[in-house]
């Protein structure tokens, strides 16, 4: 007899402005299994699990818990229905003890706390699943792995039958990962259902009883353990469509515009991020950086544009060393950046189009009139750019935060391109845009390439990388795991490189 | 459990309607006055009489009006000063202290060169008052720029240092030997006194505020430096990305912010008190913060709102004679800020009705949501 479903998601659809994060997704968890949810960043994994954990309400579809249809209005509803989520970023209070954190927000706790009892219960519970934690320890004293165990115990203590872990191994050492997997096995054996969200194939191979692959918001397949192999998974994850490259009029140029030599940098947490990154981008060339988000893409763009300090190696623009230069100096050397976060970094949301379009050149040339701004000239330029780039505005002074994603991106590109930089760094340039806007942005990039601009294109969308790039560099764990001319590779090879070079080698054999 | 019912949610409006900018602040003011009236009634007063008396006192006579303008002068300056810093999201709560330091520096000039000609004593008082006020604001700006030390705390604390420094001077070394032991310095000689209008106490400091309001506007909206301030204030991430030197601007903006507050102190000693004294300012630096916010940091609105606030203070002073405590005015100021800022939420958000919907909650029971 097949084991009963603990929970079923049927035809879940969740839309965000401009994107369908989940498109009629079916997903279920059986008693006693570990079900892995696999997909690239942006494929809709986290959205789906947030629906299951009561953080988002689906626009369409049903949530069925042990046969009863339910509406989760809050994470509280989900928890009382037995669904517990361990987030990637822990929701713990550092100055509280483990036991205090566990009972936080639990309505079933007696008004007068008996901490001794609670601690004893916790100790027993964690013992049973081999989760070693000290209930009286303060959270700030714990390692990352221990904190994660606290989160897991918290959910078990609240009686969760289904436990969701969002990229649990991202923060763990290999030893801690092995330990965690042992614990998860134990929990499944006791009749709970475990969902692990990941984009790492290795983990699927290790622990999955079943795997569901998400791609661009759709569940493309659910496979049983015996059906799972790496090649199929890679193929399912990155998509099987044949990608046609845009036609390019000219071959890339010969002049080196951007050169990185053995560049190292730290991430925001002060851990090593980029390691020994070396590559060159030539004039009239689009160099695509492929990789799963969070492998150093953002840091790479920031290092090149001077927003993040370099801890080793050197960077050259047209032969001039700019390592450690200020953003201002790097702008003056002809580097333009279309940042990942348009409204957060690239634009000033509450100011109008005029003020936003002069952000990079307000201190130069025509716009300068002593200490004053030449506002008439700025308005004139804005009108021209708005026409030339077909930006739809209600007025030149309306705050740009009111614009649609496609218009925002056109505004941003208009500014960066008209500065006529030697190098344009474009990070996720079409994220969140519809097909028409995407095509327009791509054409703009290609036009600049024909004009001889060097373009460093960073994207998590492999189709985009393939359509535009002359050469593709793959970034994985802060390292370049391969640089391949676009016409000599295919999506599958790049997909495997993205998951880590060892696995690609293994498959190639 | 099944829940029926209509829900109300607060949603962000994309574009506030232009009428909202007028209607909402005015309704907020009326609400503030109503709540103030409730307190008046509770303490056994006829609120209508009190409000009328306040209004008449502040605007109904030449004397009242001139006193209102007298209050307006320092308030305009402190409001403009702190508003400049607020433009860049620098929370300069130290306007009061910067005012005192400006007054101290101006007084030093006046006392050191008694009998000097106004032609050079006056400019020296202005410049030194602004310089010392500015340096007093630069002091917390440096750790803020370099290490990110919270300027709210440091500027607030430096207020007390400045106030007690002035107290030390007027109770000690600078005390007027002929002043019957009162905590004040000797009266300035005529060269150190700002000319006043006729018999009233309105003095030339009024022009400082009006001129600075214009300069403030031009700098913020027409210059490249003002553009940098606006960008940094709205989005520091974009400022960094555009290559704007944020640290330098933090220091510059705080310096000028303090300098304008320092000028307020200079104009008080030179135009009103004609000497440095204990309790020189009844909290002009703090009231300036309220005014700056109520005016949405717009320099011309600041001038108007300041005039109303000056009137409020004078009106409150006048009704004190009929037994209304002076704290009434402070309370009204607080209420105004509370309601106007609360009303601002309504300008940017709207309350939306969500139709009733059948909701089945989790069966497991305990959802006391």
TrEMBL record, chain A:
GO molecular function: ATP binding; ATP hydrolysis activity
Membrane topology according to the record: Peripheral membrane protein
UniProt xrefs under InterPro entries: AAA+_ATPase, ABC_carbohydrate_import_ATPase, ABC_transporter-like_ATP-bd, ABC_transporter-like_CS, P-loop_NTPase
One GO location term (cellular component): plasma membrane
Chief subcellular location: membrane
Compartment list: Cell membrane
Domain ABC transporter: 7-241, 258-502
Name of the protein: Nucleoside ABC transporter ATP-binding protein
Species assigned in the record: Desulfoscipio geothermicus DSM 3669
From TrEMBL, chain B:
Tagged with keyword Transport: no
Record key words, sorted: Cell membrane, Membrane, Transmembrane, Transmembrane helix
Pfam families: BPD_transp_2
Transmembrane region(s): 21-48, 68-86, 98-114, 120-140, 152-174, 202-220, 250-270, 276-294, 301-319, 331-349
Bilayer topology term: Multi-pass membrane protein
Compartments, as annotated in UniProt: Cell membrane
Molecular function GO terms recorded: transmembrane transporter activity
Keyword check for Nucleotide-binding: no
InterPro entries named in the record: ABC_transp_permease
Major location (coarse): membrane
A GO CC term attached to the entry: plasma membrane
PANTHER family: ABC TRANSPORTER, PERMEASE PROTEIN, GUANOSINE ABC TRANSPORTER PERMEASE PROTEIN NUPP
Protein name listed in UniProt: Nucleoside ABC transporter membrane protein
Organism, as annotated: Desulfoscipio geothermicus DSM 3669
Taxon lineage: Bacteria, Bacillati, Bacillota, Clostridia, Eubacteriales
